[in-house]
Amino acid sequence: MHIYLGRFSLLGGKMFKSFAVVVGSYLLSVLLVIGTDPLLSKIFPGDFERGHIPSNHALMASTACFIVVSIFCAWLCARFAPGVSSHSAGRHVLWFFLIGELMGIIATIPNWSKGWPHWYWLSWLFSWPVSCWIGLQIGIKMSGRDTAAN
Question: Which residues of the chain are under the pLDDT cut of 70?
Fold first, then answer.
């Protein structure tokens, strides 16, 4: 089944796969980050209770988990991006990055004045682009995509 928007096929085509790869990778990153909460709650009992601001050590561990998940999901985005060039993978990871950074800014603004250390919010915003870049580089290297075309 194909649904066409001008020259682009939305279902069954490259555009749909691109959309699915980027959005799917981002949603997976959200689920995996949320999935680290029970682990962090066991490692830092009492730190991640509702209404309580965690200790710096707990927040550093949370940030480390976020970075690992971000690299992994950027790698997945690059790995499953349609096309054979590293340029194609790069475009997909760029969209993955833009969605994540926008959502990060949207999450930071209302939480900025709630007593959490500012370094925590900023560390996620600043580590996200670096993590996306690392995931992209791993994805390109592991897939053997043509880098000479860039």
Answer: 1-13, 84, 145-150
